[in-house]
Amino acid sequence: MKVVVIGGGNGSYAAVADLVEAGHDVRWWRRDRALFEDILRAGGITVTDHAGSREVAVAPTDDLAAALDGAALILAPTPAFAQEDIAEALAPHLVDGQVIYLPPGTFGSYIMLKRIRERGSKADVAIAETGTLPWLARKQGPLAVRITTRASRLPTGVLPARLTEHALAVIGQAFPGAIEPAQDALAGALMNAGPIIHPPLILMNAGPIEHFDRWDIHNEGTQPAIRRTHTALDNERIAVREALGYGVPHFPLSDHYETSNWMYGNLAHDKLVDSGDWHESLDLKTHRYMQEDVGLGLSFLVSVGAWAGVPTPVAAGLLAIASTVAETDFRKGGRTFENLGLDGLDRAQLRQILREGLS
After folding, report:
1. Which of 211, 223, 287, 353 is 20 to 30 A from 34 in CA distance terms?
2. Burial degree of 309 (CB within 10 A; 0-12, 13-18, 19+)
3. From CA 200, how far away is CA 298, in angstroms rounded?
């Protein structure tokens, strides 16, 4: 399968490594070619996982039109705040039948489809999103990535939902055996684990994060009080899903810590801690956990809860504290139903968009 991987973060490196090794025709695109110079000179990257280290040959490009030509799958494991710009770049080149996958999405499926339509594209594309990045991975400089573990279950919703069967068949070629259907893109968005796991970890560890040069929020930072907050916050997410008519499985975050039933399986939290790769420096104003998981993801959850009539006091409280810590009003400027222009819809109107998409 011809696959385009977009971006240069941890997930993009891991995606390229796995997809090339699986035999796919991988085109790796970033807007700024200069950021790929080291890889172009080296002829590829090094991937390290449980099987050891090895070289993966890949030739990145900044020619998006050429990369997209004939591609079945467009994989964008990028921060959610990059989705609008990516949609702008993709729009002129998309054709019927292509599938865009956002792992995870924070309801980026709607934002991207809206922007693609605004740019004049009528291509009948599917945009899917899931609950987590398919890899626990960290880059080891510009030429290497270390993959701690891979997701074994990826609950995935599609916009428009009428294209679900086609989209999941395409995505399943890249992630065989891992894709599980969610009812639609909003159901997929409400599987996003980032806004549940990261806000308590960074806000309730704010003191040591700012005191020490490096701090592991998953090791020293995951204490019983924080886990209790995780559970309460996740219960709000599940209550919102249930109020919208989405049934089990909800993928409760407790499974990540206590069982092998969650998205990564195999007690992934223990692997994450043992790797040491998350013992790192975090800027509480600029880090992705704040700008994406709080600023976009948590604001989205609070707003959907308000629209659905479901109280989310823990999420709202964390959002208020985060806005103070980051000196940014995330409730006003975040990814909310109000800012997306969806707050005036009734449930039937929203279901119609989720099913049929945007014209």
Report:
1. 287
2. exposed
3. 11
